[in-house]
Amino acid sequence: MIRPCSIPRSLMSFLLALVLAVMPGHVLAHPMPTTTVQLDLHSDAVTAELALPLNELEVATHWKLVNNPQTLTQYSAPLRSYIAQHLALTGASGQAWTVEIGQPTLSQVQQTATGAYQEFLVPVTLIPPAGASVRDFTLKYDAIVREVKTHSILVSVRRDWERGLNNESGNESVEVGIIRADPRTDLVPLLPINQARGSAWQGFVGIFMLGVHHIAEGTDHLLFLLTLLLPAPLIAVMNRRPHWGDFGGTRRSLLNIVKITTAFTVGHSLTLLLGTLRIVTVPDAPIEALIAVSILVSAVHALRPIFPGRELMIAGGFGLIHGLAFSYTLAELNLSTWQTALSLLGFNLGIEAMQLLVIMVTMPWLILLAQTKLYPPVRVFGASLAAIASLGWLGDRVGWSNPLGVLADRLGTAGPWALIALAVLALTGFTVTRLRRVRATA
Predict the structure, then answer these.
(1) pLDDT digits (tens, 9 = 90+) for 252-294
(2) What is the CA radius of gyration of the chain?
């Protein structure tokens, strides 16, 4: 009689995981995304966002989560208790950290190669003992992975001011470790986290780049300023039918551009300061809607002068609105006093640098075009496009989703091509106009 060989349970688990990994996706009972832990390092605490896939959490807890419309209300409290049992931090000296678990929310349904899945998103605040460093601790987190041995937990640092990491300026989270059950023992190991210190300079540069990217990706902010500058090279003719007249001269055009840009800068700098310090707090939704209105107003003015000579007041006034929107980015970082002071300077300089760059590569072509017969149709086309985009954004921001809003969001990707077309048109039109003048005087 042949006796069956004895295979260790840990080896069986490993082989089962391997088989499941290579089987076709449609054979799996559910998709197997990872849990993520994204850490934000502050001066006196660490905040985190935990993302727990419903499919895997359902297997671990036997709760009815998938395709349950009552998932959030029914399991919010049990989930917080579950996480409290599976999450703990200790400092370098072995002292336990305080763990505060916030209210869970549900993410949007996402599609993967193995099917659709949804996540619980749970905010957590982790407070070290007095005198302990927020950069050196040991993480114990075994939610799901303790029950589902094939699961993984990806841990990363999303924000770290001292090292210039903010996850919004083009840089991505830095992975610090992956938590998996040991296939030999089924134990879930602790994860030591020891982040190197950064510097004030790294923090400043990181925030400066955040300002740059905020404008580079903030199509609505740039569109407002460029639309307001669109008629700057022209003279307003105020008669029974107000309209934009001829080119007012290079010097006058440049002076108008400097004045309007400066007024906008002063306006948004003031509310950036007040909003970041939380001296002024306004809900996000009305501010975003007013930004769309500001674009619409400047577009109408570019089509027909409605406030000639008062562009500085309009730029400064709407700059106040745009500055409040800028301030939300810094306010969310929860910085210390000195970090906030440096960040206000760096962020504002980043905004101004990007604005100045965009103006420098755009306005010379507009000034050239303003001296040709091509400028009226270019101005009308640009102002009309801005008006349509503003209406799309306004609809989106008051709760009416529309295709114009989606198209408006994509305007930023077309920016480089539009600039090339503008340059070619300006050079061609200006050259032809000059040649005609030379021939006329010959």
Answers:
(1) 999 999 999 999 999 999 999 999 988 988 888 899 999 999 9
(2) 28
